[in-house]
Amino acid sequence: MLDTYVQVVKKRVLSSYNKFVEPIKKTLLNTPQLVSRGNRPLQMTFEDQLNALIYFHLQEFKSGRHLMQVLEQDNFAREVIAPKDGIKKSSFFEAINSRGLEQLTSVFNELQIQASQDRPKKHTEYGDLIAIDGSFINAVLSMHWADYRDGSKKAKVHVGFDLNHSIPSKIFLTDGKSAERPFVEQILDPGQTGVIDRGYQSYKDFDRWQNEKKHFICRIKENAQKTVIRAHETSKDSIVFYDAIVLLGTKGINQTEKEVRVVAYRIGSTNYWVATDRFDLSAEQIAAVFKLRWDIEIFFAWWKRHLKVYHIIARSEYGLMVQVLAGLITYLLLAIYCHEEYNEKVSINRVRELRINIQNEARSVYCNSSDLHDSSINKNHYLYAKT
Q1: Looking at residue 246, what is its pLDDT?
Q2: pTM score, whole prediction
Q3: What is the DSSP string of 79-91?
Q4: For residues 66 and 73, what is the distance between their CA atoms, to the nearest angstrom?
Q5: Is residue 228 within 8 Å of 199, Cβ to Cβ?
Q6: What are phi and psi of 160, to 5 degrees?
Q7: Is 109 exposed, middle or buried (0-12, 13-18, 19+ CB in 10 A)?
Q8: What is the pLDDT of the chain when averaged over all its residues?
Q9: Where is 156: in which H helix or E strand?
Q10: Structural domain tally of the chain?
Q11: Which of 116, 140, 199, 202 has the least CB density, counted as fewest CB within 10 Å?
């Protein structure tokens, strides 16, 4: 009976950690079941795998071995995060590299919906905006699938970032040499506007996206060939100095079949030229939307630096996708937590505060539960004191 009382106390006192992972409970209702491929039961269930990976990113472990050591030796990690009977290193790494991807994808999609519903929508006057970009992951030479160049291995994540809610929405993983343009069609849904940089400039794609009702605001090269159909006047007081409906490219070679709007504006000493099919926005609004693309760069930098997403614990393409998805899930949990608890966006100060609270609450629980086992303190008095 004493152990039962201790477990009740743990659930009540570990409030910060419980609040942080609470959204996961809703997602698991729709998550496909992970079953054993053989006759033996799973040593690590999907819930165990998910908990361990979230804990890995939240607490900034630098390697899988470091995580395994903590799961074995730290009271909180051993009893709350690790599987009930513990987990061997070989079983842990085998699981990361070979299973859980379908389930993690389901959890990510469900959490993305939760986060977008809970957080206020920004920039509504511009419609649904999705920034799209790729980011390299430094790989090791033994990761033969991650082709980049001789003597260097890299993988690449292709991410759609919901600019209206400041959260990632879709992700794909390839080797480092893979082209980025094809992922626009996979990331964008009809009616959404992709906000993309010069690496995505493609006149054939501009036609295709318009046919698919997928909008775009794409930076283009200043010297892009333009056949002007009609030009719009610009104000001397505006940052915009060019606004015209054109056909892009060279006739008979690569010219667009559909009309495209080109807007050029100047910020400081830099000129920006963007092509778009958003004829409904003003030229100044086009410039404002493209400036929002910087948010995905900020997200990549923050994600890499503070959640240690790219401390690789998996070598296979499958396992790396498992790890990257877990990093995104951790970010979505933080986005939900910071909004619900503080009505703020994700910040490193709030993340550090959460980490400290979890450590302090865990220390309180396990110090006191140890004292409880070694003394004859009245159970009711103990529960009252801790709640």
Answers
A1: 98
A2: 0.89
A3: IIIS-TT---HHH
A4: 11
A5: no
A6: -100, 130
A7: middle
A8: 88
A9: strand 152-162
A10: 2
A11: 140
* Domain assignment of residue 115, yes or no: no
pLDDT digits (tens, 9 = 90+) for 305-334: 888 777 888 999 999 999 999 999 999 999
Return the CATH number at 237.
3.90.350.10
Both tokens of 366, joined, read: 């396990």
Q: What is the extent of the structural domain holding 65? A: 2-104+321-386
Q: What is the mean pLDDT of residues 341-361?
A: 92
Evaluate whether residue 113 is within a structural domain.
Answer: no
Going from the C-alpha of 170 to that of each of 157, 286, 297, 309, the distances in angstroms are: 10, 24, 15, 16
- Dihedral (Cα; 75, 78, 84, 85), 10-degree rounding: -100
Q: Looking at the structure, do residues 12 and 87 belong to the same domain, yes or no?
A: yes
Q: Phi first, then psi: give them for residue 172, nearest 5 degrees.
A: -135, 150
Say if residues 177 and 148 touch (Cβ distance below 8 Å): yes
Q: What is the DSSP letter of 330?
A: H
Count CB neighbours of 270 within 10 A. Answer: 7
Report whether 154 contacts 137 (CB < 8 A): yes
Q: Are residues 131 and 269 in the same domain?
A: yes
Residue spans of alpha helices (H) in the chain: 2-13, 15-28, 46-58, 64-73, 75-76, 89-98, 101-118, 182-187, 203-211, 283-291, 294-306, 317-342, 348-373, 379-386
Give the tokens for residue 66: 């470091």
Dihedral sign (CA 51, 57, 60, 66): positive
- Cβ atoms of 178 and 235 closer than 8 Å: no
Amino acid letter, 284: E
For 333, residues 6+ apart whose C-beta sits below 8 A from its C-beta are 20, 21, 23, 24, 54, 111
